[in-house]
Amino acid sequence: MTVSATQQTMMKPMTKPSQRLVFLDVVRGLTVAFMILVNNNGSERLAYWPLKHSAWNGCTPTDLVFPTFLFLVGIAIVFSTASRISRGETKGVLLIHAFRRAVIIFVISLIVHGFPNYPVATMRVYGVLQRIAICYLVATLLYLWDRRVVTLLSVSVACLLGYWILIRWVPVPGVGVPGRDFPFLDRYMNLDAVIDRKLFPTRLDEGVFDPEGLLSTIPALATCLFGVLTGLWLRTEKRMMTKVGGMLAASVGGLALGSFWAIWFPINKRMWTSSYVLFAAGWTLLALAICYFVIEIRKQGGRWTYPWKVFGSNAIFSYAFSELLASTLEHIHVTQNGQTLALKELIYTRIFASIVSPSFGSLLYSLSFVLVCFVPAVALFRKRIFIKI
Fold first, then answer.
1. 1 occurs within a structural domain
2. Which of 33, 117, 212, 366 matches a 20 to 30 Å C-alpha distance to 146?
3. Last-in-domain residue among 282, 300, 318
4. pLDDT in tens, 309-361
């Protein structure tokens, strides 16, 4: 009885503990590209609904981008740590590296989001990269302290349940108990928003609320830890098809539990609710399982993966470049026919908005923006320059 090459591949475990998996770069690149796409609609008002965040409760494809990236950070912690340990680095060296990397990511975010004016008195402290830096650091410290699955899973569950208890049952000072004295998950009267207004009254993204606030970083840590757990699963010596099956089972579990919990704790990206963490993790695991099967097992990682490997290999650089470019287009103003417009608005209205429809034009603007960001990323990739932090 003969066994085909494909079947042999499906049964063979990962041969090297620190082996780089191409499918992770592809998923990371897809995530970064989509993040750039949805962050740069030609018109926020007229963009198609999948390319916009939910106004409050609910979930769109755009709402799944950030948790997917944070999930991938958790996976990267496992593989990066294994690689460094194989080179003989001690736990002390790994701790110093984690602190250094977290600080650099945090500072990069401040530089990027403050550009070009840097209003010291009102500059936002929270942000996407800031949350990534904090979750990366805490998850790394926890992983270096105790890598047991039961510990990591227990902390994740504690984060989700603890956040739900804080938001649902802890009285908001001067307002009362959520769900009794005011609507549960009120946009401005929830505990997360109240704490942020006390800490940074003039530095919040939406004035009185910030979607990357302090308290909501607790469940975001669970997202990162779910990535760590997935990384541990991928590094086991189980058969490759068993790994796919495990991710698919976890995907179904996350989607089901998230949807069920949403009955009492609605799915809400801006508050990073516990139900949202599970629901988003379910979709991320589904994407990972599909890409793992196609690229690592079926070996179908051909030309179609190239652009995603380009973005995935320099993810932080690509995101930072896109943010700097967007700020530049917003702050350069052009006057034509007595009307002054930001360069972004001028490009959209004069070039893209009239193509088919304003909404379709908004999509074309977004795609063009991604292509522009692809240019420096592919230049670095071709020169084999990978910016490490």
1. no
2. 212
3. 300
4. 999 999 999 999 999 999 999 999 988 777 888 999 999 999 999 999 999 99
Q: Is residue 325 part of a domain?
A: yes
3-state secondary structure 292-340: HHHHHHCCCCCHHHHHHHHHHHCHHHHHHHHHHHHHHHHHCEEEECCEE
Q: Is a pLDDT exceeding 70 seen at residue 7?
A: no
Tell me: pLDDT of 17 over 70.
no
Query: What local confidence, expressed as pLDDT, does residue 190 receive?
Result: 92
Q: Are residues 152 and 281 in the same domain?
A: yes
Last residue in a domain, options 238, 267, 300:
300
Domain count, the chain: 2
CB 56 within 8 A of CB 187: yes
Considering the domain architecture, whether residues 164 and 100 belong to the same structural domain is answered as yes
Distance between CA atoms of residues 106 and 86, nearest Å: 28
Between CA 21 and CA 19 the distance in angstroms is 6
Tokens representing 124 are 């936002």
**Contact at 8 Å (CB) between 36 and 318?**
yes
User: Helix or strand or coil: residue 124?
Assistant: coil
* Residue 319 lies inside a defined structural domain of this protein: yes
Task: Give yes or no for a contact between 193 and 187, defined as CB atoms under 8 angstroms apart.
Answer: yes
Residue 44 resides in a domain: no
CA neighbor of 15 nearest in space, from 247, 241, 236, 291? 236
- The C-alpha atoms of residue 197 and residue 336 are separated, in whole angstroms, by 40
Range of the domain at 332: 304-389
* Max Cα distance, the chain (Å): 81
Cβ-in-10-Å burial (0-12, 13-18, 19+) of 134 comes to buried
Q: What is the mean pLDDT of the chain?
A: 91
**What is the predicted pLDDT for the residue at 202?**
87
| Contact criterion met (CB below 8 Å) for 338 and 332 | no
Please count the CA atoms within 13 angstroms of the CA of 348 that sit on its side-chain side: 27
User: Which of the four pLDDT bands, split at 50, 70 and 90, describes residue 19?
Assistant: low
How far is it, in rounded angstroms, from Cα 36 to Cα 31? 9
Q: Are residues 149 and 230 in the same domain?
A: yes
The reported pTM is 0.92
Looking at the fold, whether 136 and 226 belong to one and the same domain comes out as yes
**What's the number of CA atoms in the CB half-sphere (13 Å) around residue 374?**
16
